[in-house]
Design a protein that fits this description.
Helices cover 25% and strands 22% of the residues. By secondary structure, it is an alpha+beta fold. The protein folds into two domains: 243 residues, 4-Layer Sandwich (Glutamine Phosphoribosylpyrophosphate, subunit 1, domain 1), CATH 3.60.20.10; 175 residues, Rossmann fold, CATH 3.40.50.2020. The strands form six sheets. It has a seven-stranded antiparallel sheet with strand order 3-2-4-1-10-9-11. Strands 5-6-7-8-12-13 form a six-stranded antiparallel sheet. Helix 4 packs across helix 5. The protein starts with 22 loop residues before the first strand and ends in a 23-residue tail after the last helix. InterPro entries: GATase_2_dom, Ntn_hydrolases_N, PRTase-like, PRTase_dom, PurF, PurF_N. Keywords: 4Fe-4S, Glutamine amidotransferase, Glycosyltransferase, Iron, Iron-sulfur, Magnesium, Metal-binding, Purine biosynthesis, Transferase.
């Protein structure tokens, strides 16, 4: 689908399973400003982080109102809905589901509590101790989640709803005091923006896996997943929300508390692909990181060629860096259709066979007879690159050399990115030469792990590289307690089904195939990925 930052996502082919961005969170405390509209534009700048649902909660000091729905930010909100969201503080969210199905019930911000203790909460990331948090909430409410107030009782199956429920479980605690008790019990990745009627809060997990920044308005404060969210509303960057920090903003100003010591493990894939190129992460510009990855690629995997070109648009910065370091001219060999975006009409088999041609078209005059270096940020299953190489050859390319600005993706993420299952990842069990043959390229080169990390200018021990290395910095629970559907059974009548529903059936039983009729994999679900070869 087309992305809000102008890039084209990995979803270049029908039914291609690609890395999906997690979520975007935004909050503003600004008396006298149109906080709902500021939040709307903030979410617009963060739309690339989640395209399934969007929502905004506002408070006028007396009551909280939440408006949310399934769809893009521009589809969910209009002038009338934004006008109804009045107040001096707001919390916003754009969602891609990493725990809980995509549904209206699971859209955020989540609303919870009672008339005397209310909270609206937005979450970017993914918790790995969801089952333990659920058990704790069950115990508090007499053994049944349906006794819990808020959205858990109404069928919300996200880890976010559990956190919201825990924050308001003790009516004798203020929201701030409850947060200082609950936040240390959360395990995994979480950048939270939440509020009650009076105060805006922001918190980040001790590892700082997902980004969260603080900005200043003339008459208030802003928190955002990325600095691009600050830029769009005219807020000046102040600093990051520190890992393990809780910030509170109200009429008395800003105050900060530590709920855990910092053990920084920022997600390296934010630098590779997830974050907008105009964002700054921990002092390092994302665009410059990607350009440097391209320069490193050129040094590590040189090849004689006539032109360097990107896979639009995610490979563009790295392709610019490769061309700069290699001295080979940069060019555009593909044109994308800017109007092919989210569609609610399933492609027919005939259209499915067209695959990548729905979204990209070759510039034959530019390609014909040329030796091409095609730069992209990652290979997941390989279907996109396979189709792309075929298209370029059909357009007359003499050679096609593929260069990737990240190492082979071999492991799933449990901290807020939805990858293909491990069995579907082409690099699982295959060497670089095998992958080259699979996609049909003349040569294939991945950046080294060391080269990728160096381009971020971050210390190696302060980055999470689990999807490349299998080294998970936050301990994972047993396989049965992993996966985005871990809470779905709570509202399925209390019985575990003897066979999983269709969408969870292993691929070998479904007989799923890609556009070329090639079977996709022999296992399903990421829950047991870390225990499989």
């Amino acid at each position: 689908m087309a992305r809000a930052d102008g890039r084209l996502s990995h979803d270049l082919m029908p039914d291609e399973k690609a890395p999906q961005d997690e979520c975007g969170v935004f909050g503003v405390w600004a008396p006298g400003e149109e906080v709902a509209k500021l939040t709307y534009y903030g979410l617009y700048a963060l739309q690339h982080r989640g395209q399934e649902a969007a929502g905004i909660a506002t408070s006028d000091g007396r009551s909280l109102l939440v408006y949310k729905d399934v769809g893009l930010v521009s589809q969910v909100f209009d002038e009338s809905s934004l006008a109804s969201l009045r107040g001096h503080l707001a919390v916003g969210h754009c969602r891609y589901s990493t725990t809980g199905r995509n549904s209206w019930e699971n859209a955020q911000p989540t609303l919870g509590g009672t008339e005397d203790q209310t909270v609206a909460l937005a979450h970017n990331g993914n918790l790995v101790n969801t089952s333990q948090l659920r058990d704790r909430l069950v115990e508090i409410h007499g053994g049944d989640l349906r006794n819990a107030p808020g959205e858990v009782r109404r069928g919300n199956t996200t880890d976010t709803a559990l956190v919201t429920g825990l924050l308001t479980a003790d009516p004798d605690l203020s929201l701030e005091a409850a947060a200082m008790e609950v936040l240390p019990t959360l395990r995994g990745a979480f950048s939270l923006v939440f509020c009650d009627e009076q105060t805006l809060y922001a918190a980040r997990d001790p590892q700082g896996v997902r980004p969260l920044v603080l900005g200043r308005l003339e008459r208030g404060w802003v928190v955002s997943s990325e600095t691009s969210g600050l830029d769009i509303v005219g807020a000046s960057f102040v600093r990051e929300v520190e890992p393990g920090e809780l910030i509170a903003i109200d009429q008395n100003g800003l105050r900060s508390q530590r709920f855990a010591e910092t053990d920084r493990k920022g997600c390296v894939f934010e630098y590779v692909y997830l974050a907008r190129p105009d964002t700054t992460l921990n002092g390092r510009g994302v665009y410059e990181s990607r350009v440097e990855m391209g320069r490193t690629l050129a040094r590590e995997h040189p090849v004689d060629a006539d032109m360097v070109m990107p896979t639009p648009e995610s490979g563009t910065p790295a392709a610019i860096g490769y061309a700069e370091a290699s001295g080979i001219p940069y060019g555009n060999g593909l044109v994308k259709n800017a109007y092919v975006g989210r569609t609610f009409i399933a492609p027919s088999q005939t259209i499915r066979q067209l695959g990548i041609r729905l979204k990209l078209n070759p510039l034959r005059e530019v390609i014909r007879g040329k030796r091409l270096i095609v730069v992209d940020d990652s290979i997941v299953r390989g279907n996109t690159q396979r189709a792309l190489v075929r298209m370029l050859r059909e357009a007359g390319a003499a050679e096609v050399h593929v260069r990737i600005s990240s190492p082979p993706v071999r492991w799933p993420c449990f901290y807020g990115i939805d990858f293909a299952t491990r069995a579907e990842l082409i690099a699982t069990g295959l060497g670089v030469e095998d992958i080259r043959q699979s996609i049909g390229a003349d040569s294939l080169g991945y950046i080294s792990h060391e080269g990728m990390v160096a381009a971020t200018l971050q210390p190696r021990d302060q980055l999470c590289t689990a999807c490349f290395s299998g080294d998970y910095p936050i301990e994972l629970p047993v396989a049965e307690q992993l996966g985005k559907d871990v809470l779905e059974l709570e509202f399925s009548g209390g019985e575990v089904p003897t066979s999983p529903p269709e969408r969870h059936t292993p691929l070998r039983e479904r007989g799923a195939v890609d556009v070329d009729g090639v079977r996709l994999g022999s296992h399903g679900g990421a829950a047991d990925a870390v225990s499989r070869p």
